[in-house]
Amino acid sequence: MLAYNKELLANSFLVSEAKNLYKMKFISKSQLADIATQLPLLQSNRNILVRIGFFLLGCFLFSSVMGSVIMLFMPLLENNYKVMVYFYALIGLVGTEFLAAKKYHKHGLDDAFILSMQGAFYAAIGISFEDSLLVFMAMVVLGLVCCIRYVHTLSALISCIGLVGLLFNLITEQHLMATLFLPFVGFLLAIGIYFVYRKLHLNPKNYLYTNALLVTKVFGLVLGYFSLNYMVVRELSQSLMNITVEEGADIPLAFLFYGLTFLVPLFYIGYSIYTKDRMMLIVGILTLGYSFFTIRYYYQLMPLEIALLLGGIVLFAIVFAAIRLLKDKETGVTFKPDRSADTNLILNAQALLVNAQVDVKPVAGQENMPFGGGGFSGGGAGETY
Question: How deeply is 42 buried, as exposed, middle or buried, from its count of CB atoms within 10 A (0-12, 13-18, 19+)?
Fold first, then answer.
C-alpha cells in the first residue's frame, strides 16, 4: 500500500529524530553527520520555507502540464468540462506516482501534486453529481488513502474535515436526526476521533504516521470544544433551526452550553497537566481564551479595563500555582528549561538588553609626564632654575 520503500521512510524518520537529539545536545555534530551520510534517504526538505517554495513551483508545474495536455486533446473532448476535470485528477495521480517513484517525500513538489489531485477529484465529483454528500464521502476515503499511501499529513486533515462535513450533511440536509442533537453528535464524534488517535498512537508500528496522528488529535480536541461552544451553538441554531433570540431570551439548554464553554477548556488544561501533554495544554489555553471572548461578545458584564485587570489577576494566580506545582517535575509538562528550545536567541536578547542599559563613557587619558615649564630635565624654560 505504501508508495515508498519502508526502509527509506524509516531512515528518514531516524535522521529526523537524530536532528532533534542534536538540537537538544544529546549527540554531537559529527555523530549527526555520520548518521545522515550512512543511511540512504528520500528526497525531502526539512526547511518549511523551502518546502513552501517547491510547493508553489509544483502548483505552477501542475497547471502547466494540465494546460498543455488539454490544448492537445481539446478537439476530442469537445468542451466537455466534466471529463476535463476528471482528466485533471488523472494528471495529478500520474504526477504523484511519478514523484513517489523518484523518492520525493515531504519535498514540496509531491505536496502540490497530492493536493491538486485531490482537489480536482473532489471538484469532478461535485460537478458530475451536484451532491455535497458524495464530495464529503470522497474526502473521507481519498484523504485517508493518500495519508496511508503517501504518508501525507495534510491528507489526514482533509479526511477529518470530510468526516465532519459528512455528519453535518446527514443531519441538516438528509435529516438523519433532529438538528437539536447536532452539537452532542459532534462532541461524540470528537471523542471517537481522539480514542482512534490513542489506539493508533500506542501501536509502535504506526511511528511513520506520527505527524498525521498529531493533526488528528488536535482536530479532535478543537472539534470537541467548538461542538459545545455557546457562540457556535447559538449561531447555528439561528441559521439552521430559525430560532430568533430576542432580548431577554436565549437558546434552548443555554445554561448547559454556558457551562461547557468553560468546563471543556478547563478539563483540557487539567488533564494535560496530569498526563504531561503539551499539545493539549496549548489547545486548552487557547480555547479558554476564546471562551471569555464568547461570553463577552454577547454580554458586557463590566468595562473592558476592569475585565482586563481581573483577567490579568486570574492568569497570574493560575501561572503562580502552575509553577509551584510543576517546578520539581523533570519530564512532560514542567517548569524546567526545555532542551529542545533554542536558548541562544534568549541569551543574545538578554545580552543586547544588558548592553543597552550600560552607560559607557569614554575615559580621559592621564598625562603622567607633563611637558613644558622646565619641570622634566630641561623640557622647557621656566622661572625656576
Answer: buried
pLDDT tens column, 279-310:
998 999 899 888 888 888 887 777 777 877 88
Exposure class string for 85-112: b at 16+ Cβ within 10 A, else e:
bbbbbebbbebbeebbeebbbbbbbbbb
Which tens digit of pLDDT belongs to each residue from 312-368?
888 788 778 877 877 776 665 566 666 555 555 555 555 555 555 555 555 555 555
Q: Are 371 and 380 in contact (CB under 8 A)?
A: yes
Give the span between the Cα atoms of 54 and 115, in whole angstroms: 13
- CA nearest neighbour of 183 among 217, 233, 255, 231: 233
Say how far apart CA 159 and CA 78 lie, in whole Å.
Answer: 34
DSSP string of 272-305? HHHHT-HHHHHHHHHHHHHHHHHHHHH---S-HH
Instruction: Report the distance separating Cα 279 and Cα 42, nearest Å.
Output: 28
Grid coordinates 441554531 are at which residue?
Answer: 237
CA-based end-to-end distance of the chain: 108
Can you read off the three cell numbers belonging to residue 231? Answer: 457562540
| Cβ–Cβ under 8 Å, residues 9 and 208 | yes
DSSP of 4-25: S-HHHHHHHHHHHHHHHHHHTT
- Distance of alpha carbon 289 from alpha carbon 266, whole angstroms: 11
CA distances from 33 to 14, 37, 59, 63, 96 (A): 13, 6, 33, 38, 31
Q: Is 104 helix (H, G, I), strand (E, B) or coil?
A: strand
Residue 246 carries which side chain, given as an amino acid letter? E
- Give the integer Cα–Cα distance in Å for 251 and 258: 11
C-alpha cell at 214: 498529531
Answer yes or no: are the C-beta atoms of 326 and 334 closer than 8 Å.
Answer: yes
**Cα 121-125-126 angle, rounded to 5 deg:** 115
CA 143, CA 152: separation in Å to the nearest integer?
9
Our separate counts of H helices and E strands in the chain read: 14, 0
Buried b / exposed e across 199-230, counting CB within 10 Å, b at 16+?
eebeeeeeebbeebbebbbbbbbebbbbbbbb
The DSSP symbol for 43 reads B
Region of residue 367 (phi > 0: left; psi between -120 and 50: alpha; otherwise: beta): beta
